[in-house]
Design brief:
Bound molecules: calcium ion
Order of helices and strands: EEEEEEEEEEEEEEEEE
Number of helices: 0
Number of strands: 17
Structural class: mainly beta
Distance between the termini: 13 Å
Helix content: under 10%
Radius of gyration: 16 Å
Strand content: over 45%
Number of domains: 1
């Protein structure tokens, strides 16, 4: 993601902390369950189950054809916008505040949408990879943190206590962009992959490995 990848706008993001929470994910195509996270980056469908809002009712997370839906019982709580291409899904306490988060990576046009900062002028048209963090409260999926364009696209993502200090980190496999046309990019499937580790700070995620 690059050392300042997890920064938005003019604000540099740096670190954070977490507690380990188990989430059970069932991946279609595999029998039984696997521990989190799940990744949909390889085009296979992913289903996960967790109770993010702690109301005792499990939500179902379904990533199919790069569209993510979240259901609780018969009710659809959230669906990814049609112009997003969601690649990966992970459930865990990414920001170490004691509640589970939904973390996704996605491809979309522009970094800011309707919330474009006033200091940015001109078109915001780049099509690149992003990392978004959500929390579920009152049946509503709310954005907790959203990256701007990532410096390097994410291939896979796990939320776990990487260094055993009791706080969660994001363990990320990063690739490289390949320009398709103009400001539109995709993952370069022939590029080197590197693993980076990020920890939540009060402003965002800061790189803790490699330093
Ligand atoms: Ca619930
Ligand atoms: Ca959390
Ligand atoms: Ca840790």
């Amino acid at each position: 993601m690059g050392s300042d990848l997890f920064s938005t706008g003019m604000v540099k993001k740096t670190r954070v902390y977490c507690g380990v929470i188990l989430v059970i994910l069932a991946v279609i195509g595999f029998s039984g369950f696997v521990g989190f996270p799940a990744s949909g980056g390889n085009d296979f469908p992913v289903q996960a189950a967790a109770d993010l809002d702690g109301d005792g009712i499990t939500e179902e997370y379904s990533l199919v054809d790069h569209c993510l839906t979240v259901r609780e019982g018969d009710e659809e709580l959230w669906r990814s916008p049609r112009d997003w291409r969601v690649d990966t899904l992970a459930l865990g306490d990414a920001d170490n505040d004691g509640t589970l988060n939904m973390v996704i990576t996605l491809w979309k046009k522009g970094s800011f949408g309707a919330l474009k900062p006033f200091w940015l002028t001109g078109e915001d048209t780049g099509y690149k990879n992003h990392l978004f963090v959500y929390g579920l409260k009152d049946k509503t999926m709310k954005q907790a943190w959203c990256s701007s364009d990532l410096d390097q696209p994410i291939i896979s993502l796990t939320i776990r206590d990487w260094d055993g200090d009791g706080l969660n980190e994001l363990v990320v496999e990063e690739g490289q962009y390949r320009r398709i046309d103009g400001e539109e990019y995709t993952l370069n499937t022939h590029s080197q992959v590197r693993t980076t580790v990020w920890r939540w700070d009060e402003w965002g995620f800061g790189l803790i490995s490699p330093l």
